[in-house]
Amino acid sequence: MSLINKAFRGAYDSVRNAAFPLSAQPGTGSGKAFSACFLLLLAPLAWGQDARQQLDAAAQRQVASELKNEARAQGWKGMTFTVDNNLPNSLGKLPACPREPQLRVSEAPSSATARRRFEADCPGQSGWPVYFTSQSTVMLPAVFASSAIERGQTLDANQLKLAPLDIGKTPRGYFTDIAEVAGKTARRRIRADQPLSPALLDGATLVRRGQQVKIVASQDGIQASAVGEAMANGKQDDVIRVKNLRSQKIIDAKVVESGVVSSIF
User: What is the tens place of the pLDDT at every residue in 52-79?
Assistant: First the structure.
């Protein structure tokens, strides 16, 4: 090995083993997981790499770029991720590409965390193209229950917390904002430290039984309002019974917002 190549090797190994804020434990398989910060340092070292290292670094950069674009589009905050490339054993006998290998996704992933299938080519070189897969793990701060919540209970912010969640393993969805969850009602018992999904919750209760509410009515362009008393709890668009406190009549009314119902004629 030439002195120049040895120098590149030493620099690559030194950077590879450094610690970065967004790094995670190495993934399984033949690929390696790198932090997003580290990916920015890989390109200048490509000439000191073999074919396996070249493809690993190239795929790391491409997947990282896609994930960061997805984070911007979705408004994800605090995202961390790892990328595990499953590279074929035959790469150990393949000479390095004299230029940056060309990567193409042979099958578009269905989501940010879905497995990617890559075709890598080095035009004019024997042994190429090479095919391999890449799997990313994306972690987001998501809403969890900090204590047990009983069925029918209205969730309070003090019962909730943010904790890292592997979003690739949450097909039923998740929440990333405590304010979005507080006020909703549990459809079933929720365990402490359980991540919350839309299927576990009903909408926030906007009107409670016994509460004074504003009754609004509109007919033939004429609008009127009165004070009433809710005879049941109600969420957005629920139809509940309401007593008009002036006439003492009980009517059906639709919940339109907090403390307000609309008379149904």
Answer: 999 999 999 999 999 999 999 999 999 9
